Amino acid sequence: MKYKTIIMAGLLAMIATGCKHDGFTIEGTLENGANKTLWLEEIAPDGPMFIDSIRLDDKGHFKFSYTPPYRSLYNLHTTENNYIVTLPDKGETLEVTGNYDNLSLTYNIKGSSESVLLWQLQQYTNDGSKILYALVDSVNSYEMQLAGGEIDKKTYDVKKKAMDSVYHAAFVEQQEYVCRFVEENAGSLATLIALYKPFNNRALIDPRDPASIDYYDQVLDGLEELLPDNPHTLHFKNTTEHLRSALARQQEQ
Q1: What are the pLDDT digits (tens) for 217-237?
Q2: The whole model's pTM is what?
Q3: How far apart are CA 126 and CA 18, in angstroms?
């Protein structure tokens, strides 16, 4: 009887350990988040899918635990436009900090190497956004000065040309970064996020550009090698095939 009890306890421990290993946890504390709601959502191949929501405690602390059917991307969001993307692996505990009201610009994360990769990508995007916002403010200021007679049209044109040059340099810098990100992180689902990154609502890797297919192929090759049966890989394979067909038709015209 004692022997059976020991075996049963061992089996239960194995089951408990297995469940824990297969899932992940995302927890943390958000400034200005006391008693507010946070949502966990999967970025599924066919679109966003609600997983859970939680009300933060009076200290802004939260904790999500989830066992996914396959490796995927997840976002935490406070509003539709205020979110962060994570890429947790089974058994990982992600620790998130930041400001609830401005999560994407203030968050930090640890406990998941690929989620940190996405954080680095977001930080670079944030740096580009700061340059963009400063340019917009400068152009608006020059337009007001022109309208108010403080500067003439020639001066405005010179300043606008300089701003356009800075914008172009910032775009190219962001573009080069995401291209390197795709090349250096082959096989990671994080490359799907990098591939679709925009700058000022303009695609950094433009699917209408024939050269873009090289980056789509790099992403697909990496995913098929490391995650061949993953739904994201299968969906992206179809996307790449459709893109290749569209580019072929474009070249025939």
Answers
A1: 999 999 999 999 999 999 999
A2: 0.86
A3: 38
